[in-house]
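Consider a protein example.
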Amino acid sequence: MPRADPTARVDPAVLAWASAAVRHTARVTNMLLAARRFRIVGGDPRDVAVLHDLLTGLGARPADDATGVDQLWCLGTPEESVTAVEQAIADRPRRSTLLVIDAGRHVPAVDEDAFGPTALARPGVLGVPTTSDDVFLVSTGRDPEDDPAAEARIRWARRSMPVSRAVADDLRQGGVLRGTRIGVSLFLEPKTAVLALLLQDAGAEVVAYAHADETDDAVADVLRRTGIPVHASSTASVSEQRDLALAMLDTRPHVLLDDGSHVIRLVRQERPELLPTMLGAAEETTSGLRPLRVMASGGELGIPVVAVNDARTKTFFDNRYGTGQSTVFAALDLLDGLDTTVRPAVPVGRGSAVVAGYGHVGEGVALVLRALGFRVTVADPDPVRALQALFAGYAVAPLTEAVRDADLVMSASGVPDTISLAVLRACAPGTVVAVAGGVDQEVAIGDAVAAGAVRTQIGRKVERVSLPDGAHVLLLDGGGCINITAAEGNPIEIMDLSFAAQLGAVRMLVERGDELERAVVPIDPEVDAVTARAALAAFGTVVEPPGSPVGTTWPTAQPVDRAPDVRTRRFGDPA
């Protein structure tokens, strides 16, 4: 596969086209780019090289002749595409999904009629049932249908969540969850609906709650029709949301699955009598674990809370690859949707971006921005984190200095007031500000309004915040976590990993909740091992099985039948 000359200047128009095509595909499929095997068919070699480098920069893998392909990017003629699709279908492993993407830059590269009748798999994605149940078509030149099609979106998510399905099936066969009531308080969209349905299928009684800005009403209605009580509405006020959360708690769940620890803390504040009847809870996020650890240190938690966020199969993937892709793409999609008269100049391939915070989320955000051609500067007050960013090849600077010439600023800290009033005032005029972290007031909009800022809506989920001294920025969706409040959350495959870890935490609590300390407790390492092995298999990769000579991890001690490493005996027998 040809690659772009790293010393040559990439044509901004070509990179803008490639970026739009990749983002469109991610948006309509809600699927991950990292780790997917791709092949590009036809097209101008310069276009091919730029698309190839963008996909590999995002973590996708070029497919060689010995491997199947997950994504077939068609840039050439329809005839070339038909031949390539037929070959890809013949080569792919059984029951693996093939995504055929018409990314023709100027004219369509795929003749959809050549594959026979199609059916809508979800808005923007066509299935080809006469060819295969696992072959789907996406056209980057066509707008997706407006129909929310909640049932179709849930079915689509379920087919791409093999790890969670496998873990839930094991729970079902073991009868572990029978008689257990589980409260699900997560972003209510198709992937969460799949989790709730899997828990229900495994024998649990499920009840759900979600914040208003994290509720897809169509998905909520689908769950209600399956018999799952849902206490959520996208139009609920803050006080109404509190009442809905309390109504969910009044069903007396034995286990809570939370995102942000809002409902876990609400139990302590408003329903403490429930604590003795609960097996525990599981928390999904970094920002949610912080207050819980404070409560635990003061002996105020009352139940064990499994730190799902700290599972390696969650943090290393959800925070970095999932949130990185989905937040950056969501921000740029919002800007693309603005009227051209107010659209800011955030040029893909030539722009300057600042990432505030270089934890796992910041790493992912920076990675995606760099793949899209942005010059990235990282700001983090932790000198070790800042040093990590420097070693990763990014510029490093204090936040108030970094934002002075930035086109785009993304906060990835999960800490209130990261984008403080002083930072807002230091931003270049018209800088776009977005949040990938996800706590209230991560952008200090309250302080800005108190200082006389005027907020003017200029497009869908985009507002101009103008300060009395003349400074102004474009704030995306009020400073909410942009991939949740303005898009469909993290990619399906990423949430498959996270929800598999949640299911592992549920097993821990149901089987050993009475034995666990009333504190924030680590997830069982075996959950990570099982989840990772199932995910590797789903991605078409094989590793050594448990109990093989290589083993699942490097041993911490020498087996009895192996001589000690010679270095341990350099100055005599260590015994």
The chain is about 40% helix and 15% strand. Residues 312-336 form the longest helix (25 residues). Residues 1-7, 549-560 have pLDDT under 50 and may be disordered.
